[in-house]
Amino acid sequence: MTNVKGLAALAQGQHGAFLAGQAHQAGVPADVLRGWISSGLLTRFGVRTLRSSFDDFTPQDHAAALLLDIKPVAWIDADSAATLHSFDGFADRDAFAPPFHVLLPRGSYVRRPGLRVHTTLDMPLDDRVFIEGLPVTNPTRTLINLARRHSPQRLTAALDGALRDRLLTEDLLITRIAQLRSQGRYGIPKLLDVIEGAEVTRGGHSWLERKYLEIAAAAGLPRPEVQRVMGRTVKRLIRVDCYYPDADLVVELLGYRWHRSRAQLNRDTERNNELIRKGHAVLQFTYDHLVLTPEVVVQSVLGTRAARLRQTLVLPTPGQGLSPFT
Q1: Cα–Cα distance measured from residue 38 to residue 220, given in angstroms and rounded to the nearest whole number
Q2: What's the pTM?
Q3: Domain 207-314: CATH class, spelled out
């Protein structure tokens, strides 16, 4: 028995489109379906998809039909997702139009007019949302994927607008970056530069500093002095991220922007050598430490600080215990 009403309801939930296989499952014989197409009642869209010839056809309908026609699961991605999220610096949602950027599982081979295909090995549920019935990468994943193809200036506008509109948070963004960075994803260093550059512009503590202070406070550590000047090398001041004066302990937080090039590495080495020469204890932590293994950070700081405090307690005072003849 043909279930035309059921097929119509199914199509309505798919932006007016349906697969030929779905029509067969609804009981529509193949010859009847061919007759609807030849008579102009239905329009073939792509390889497997059909839709009514009399319905209005929006860009969202166009995108939905393309996604339906693709065999693997797919998500609207990159510039197209940025438009749907209304990111600053990208087209308004009203201007959503092909070519559509889509993200497919790695190993999928799809070519369709009006599509720009990207692939991924990692697309968990947390990275997915639905907008106007379309599967879309969420704002955090969208911004990360945009970093592969856009300038720092455009990424900065998108980031600032997304933070303003509360589409994402720095915590979520940097946590997801740390999880994806191990895959060698192109564009992530550029996006981290953008994040740190925006922090400098806004002033105040960097995300790394805020995250460390949050972790340290939760572990019961005293609040360290931040941005403490500890001396200077030949050419510049030595300013450290965090300093515990009671234990003479320096904690350095290594952001990708300031600790990456050969020249920057040389400067960091000079700073650390000078700090160690003066007797300070120095610990260094990266984004990945703070995001993925905060317990390691806490254990290192607690252990080093405790050892330094014990050492301070047993050190002889000047003129005492230095010689058996005093």
Answers
A1: 75
A2: 0.69
A3: alpha beta
